[in-house]
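At this stage, I needed to go through a protein sequence along with its fold in token form, as given directly below:
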Amino acid sequence: MKKGTCKHFNGCVNETCEAGVRYDDVTTEPESRPGKALRVPCHSIPIFTAPSQLEQWERRGTCEKYEEPD
């Protein structure tokens, strides 16, 4: 895993991360709203830089188990 991404992140196609946290529980706004993958709290730096994508990233949720990789 790269710096800026939680070491427990295993992709939004899964229901939970490797720490057992449900992505839907820590993601802001309804799942059906576009940009859900950008609102997960698994990235401490933006993964995309288009203005509309940055707007979604800035509204991301938080997770107590976020941990940078070693």
